[in-house]
Batch of 2 targets.
Target 1
Amino acid sequence: MRSLGLSLIQGFSVLAVVLAVFVVSRWMGHSEADCRALTFVTLVVSNLCLILTNRSWSRTILTMFKEPNAALWWVVGGAVVFIGMVLCVPFLRDLFHFSRLHPTDLMICFVVGVASILWFEILKIVTARRRGVPA
């Protein structure tokens, strides 16, 4: 039951962050294509972060990077290539009705996507310290 609750909280935190990106970008006067692209990239980054953080519910993302996992890198690499193609190839960008994102926009998507699961990483560290175990 605890894992279901944590999973729901993770999902709602990603939803809240992605929705906030959309609402704030609309409020700032960005076009619909800008908002769509920002929101989609943030969603993909957040989902990749969920994959990385849920590899272990007791060890942090950074410690889990030491564990080899070829399938993980295929998934992450495939997602990054797909996002790159959708944002850079005009046919695909038009197909998704995205605008071209600037490096600052991409950085915002990355930071916000990471922030959507940062609370869970902090929870892992706090829980590990209470138990006296390294995260």
Target 2
Amino acid sequence: MSTTPETVTPGQQTGVLHVRRLGLSSYEPVWRAMQAFTDARDENQVDELWLVQHPPVFTQGQAGKAEHVLAPGSIPVIQVDRGGQVTYHGPGQIVAYPLVDIRRKRIGVREFVHRIEAAILDVLAGYGVKGERIPGAPGIYVDGEKIASLGLRVRRGSTFHGLAFNIDMDLEPFQRINPCGYSGLRVTRLSRFAPVNFDEAEDRLVESLAGQLGYSSVETIEDRRS
């Protein structure tokens, strides 16, 4: 995957969000590409949103504790540089990585997280599902069960890593960990509550994130792979 950012000239509108759809892609190459993208960007870089599904993988955040990984079995565990504890990614889950200059947008980290959560709540509401926040536990819950997780990193005023939204996936691997560091935390998926098409849910999330983050337009760009 190429990590060279596209730029805009000074004075040009920067209200566009570039959306890059990566399909089913292994976790580590995408993570390394996010790091490289963030390190290469400057104040004129167009913000991007990367959408991906990962093959089964557990990721452990910077402050992650080994005791929260109970029985990973054959699923790899990768130590990464985002916030938060251990979580699971697998097919049927929307993983969205907003690569956003929040300094340019004048959005603090807490407000950025709040807006991402609001976008997920909007999508759930569109399916007739009532989601909620739980104080002190970032992410979105339905009837006390976690349906979406957040884990971010900010470097030089720009974000990477992002959110994982359970759409129609196998939830069994979550039983092999303490999700997000909480023993006994139950997780759920959107397909339990409403008929859902994965691609449609992804499109709804893009629209909601773009609105919450204040972009004037969204453009899908070609996924460049080396």
